[in-house]
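Hi Q.,

Before the meeting this afternoon, I wanted you to have the adenosine monophosphate prediction in hand. No need to reply - just skim if you have a minute. The sequence and ligand are here:
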Amino acid sequence: MAPQFNNSYVQLPERFFARQAPVPVADPALIRVNHELAELLGIDPAWLESDEGINTIAGNHVPVGAEPIATVYAGHQFGSFNPRLGDGRAILLGEVIGNDGERYDVQLKGSGITPYSRNGDGRAPLGPILREYLVSEAMAALGVATSRTLAAVTTGEGVYREQRLPGGVLIRVARSHIRIGTFQYFASTQDLDGLQLLIDHVIARHYPAVLDADNPALSLFEKVSQQLATLVAHWQSVGFIHGVMNTDNMLLSGETIDFGPCAFMDGYDSAAVYSSIDHGSRYAYRNQPAITQWNLACLGQSLLPFIADDETEATTAAQVVLNAFPEFYLNAYFERMRDKFGLSETQEEDEALMQEFLDLLETGRHDFTLAFRRLADISADGDEVAALFTFPESFNSWIERWQQRCAQESVDAAQRQAQMRSTNPAFIARNHLVEQAIAEAYAGDFSFFHRLHERLQQPFVYAAGDALLATPPKPHEIVQQTFCGT
Ligand code: AMP
Ligand code: MG
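Predicted structure with the ligand bound:
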């Protein structure tokens, strides 16, 4: 069955978007369909794999009920405000209601120019399409709130960057694609009626409980702050570096979006930056929480006229919410970290103990993921990753103190180990493996892409046969930089 569309964003006034059909491509060929996600959305995976389905993914066919639009938004890019961005290479086909009762956007990415393309071609090379497929679905399997990938095709056409590259299109699925930058667009054009409609839409769609609040706009701001704090705490706990946390890349739904220059850290380095365009290290790993707060300040600014008539009063109220962010974030972060360290109870020295471990990791740039997985090994008898990682002597006294701390817990060692293995992945989407999958696909062979994707669907289950996919890069394999997905 094709998607059963049920569209709401297109009901908003025409100034929220431009009606824009996808631009057809020469010769689409299927890369992959996400069966599990298709089923959640009530779409038959076999239909997606049919000629009509493939042509839909490619943008050559617009299915019944789709009302294709490109949405408008603004945003701060690396700190400077751009008053008009918008979907320059994406087209929202429409929305569907999933089997879970939730509403989902079904959006094409790489589907040709729109009124918001500016100087761009509206297209995406195959590499960024595969990167987004692998990393978004790896994040979903880790349990991180994220936009997802329903399917991808090659286009049979070239995309011209520094060289000619094969093109691709993917279908992105998210609870919505409404960004902080969408609010900024209506605020900066002083379209208060539009802003009110947008607030109502987001509340109805994502935060219905806020409807009953005394001050819905303020309450919305608080809920979004908490959602994004929770999200970024999750990123930190798995070593995910987003790379381009511009306000147009932060969703009100609290899901991860835009897998351009993103990366999972290998060796622990709190200052890690991968993006080739992030010259000032604005979006370094350790800056992600503070940048989230900065982005939230932009959202708060846009909401001020709806928080109170008096500007000073509105600013003071918004500032209270913003000031609560660090504590809310730290609570969310330490909750995740306690899980990673196998601690179910809270003691005063825990945060210092955890920080000391990170400091030791950082001193030797030891592998973030394998170090935690190895800790799970030694929390009871186990040697899953011993062949890949063991702690150097410098950790001895720390491990002793951690074991003493664990002995004070009421859960037993076997339970602790099971819990640690379910929160500390063995497999992450390591940069060098993602790059290998892309390079082989450019040479025409997608088998490693599929193998890696399938492995990343079960990140918490160690498989000795796939040890290579859990292994950090050798020095010559380290990918220092990732590039923007444009
Ligand atoms: P991003 O850096 O991916 O968040 O994109 C920033 C802005 O540039 C968004 O408005 C995108 O739609 C637009 N954009 C990025 N790549 C392209 C492209 N190839 N063609 C047209 N617009 C693009
Ligand atoms: Mg973007």
